[in-house]
Specification:
Rossmann fold
Length: about 400
Amino acid sequence: MTTKVKRRLKVLYLARWYPNRYDPMPGLFIQRHAEAANICCDVGVVYTHIVNNKFSGYRVFDPNYEVINGVPTAKVYYSSSGIKLFPFNKIINIYRFFKANIIGINLIKKHLGNFNIVHIHVLTRLGLIGLYYKILYGKPYIITEHWSRYLELTDSFNGFFRKTATRIIVKQASFVTTVTKNLAKAMQSHRLQNDNYIVLPNVVDNTFLSYSPSIKNQANPITFLHVSCFEDKSKNISGLLRVISSLAKIRNDFVFRLVGDGMDMEWITNYASELGLNDKHVVFTGLLEGDKLVDEMASVDMLVVFSNYENFPVVINESLSLGIPVIATRVGGIPERINTENGVLIDARDEDQLLSNLIDFLDGGLSFNMDKIQTSSRDEFSPETVGNILCGLYVKALN
């Protein structure tokens, strides 16, 4: 008697953001989704990245292929147009974007074989590729959207062609997943209609899930943590620094550790100096990854997110999976996850409210059951849980 071997589905991931040679942080949550789906499917990732200077030898495209954490990954870097005249430079760059994706797709097909389904991460241009494969080859696609541009506060989803194309693409998708209900509602408010919107959390890396916390030395000062890409417009790190400055004037039993790097890093560190903050109260660690980031996060008492606007930062999931409570602003999808059991919600830009809650925490007026926070979070955010959900969606889409 012969036994049928069940074939694993092959999934093409098209990612608008992804860790790259210039910055290891963007789209890290997309990479974790790909790795989670790869547990029960065969996933291949294509990511393209425009650069503002030509490569050596005047190459327009610089394709790179490697297997990252078990996932075949094609990253195609391409040079921007040298023509300054609009709209010709725009047209050339759009052409090169699609050409770079074709190069990447061919690389993945060479190593992975032909794929059954396309998974689009971040609209709109990549959605046109998914639509192309559906119309010409009958391959279904699903969409995962992460972008906060649909939110009312950002108001950056505009343009007749973009809106029209996005509506068609979303309508033709088998499923649309978002990390929060808030983002799904924001998309639907722009008439991006689909019968199958699914809320799917970001994945927490196993280094967080398998971490065994050590007993904290109570002699140490209370430690607050902020982790971000150091982009002040959305993350409001300057507002956070002003609150820290106010707190430092009235007490000395705390320290803030700020983890990350980004476009406003130099300005933020200079601003901290202007406010008279030194490493007694503020420590800039720079970018931390992997075990170093886990060790850093696990050693603190509370995470602070003071964003002006946000969809849902994965650092909150990471913090909760370690049992660390969170003070965060009531923006985007954050209120869907943060409650009185695991943290505190405050209004965006309200520095007095943040200061008051920090003082309450320092005085013991705010307390949380860290074991309960950790236990309730770990299963929900695990790669296995999210991966099984994704693979279930792929099967349904194909059927």
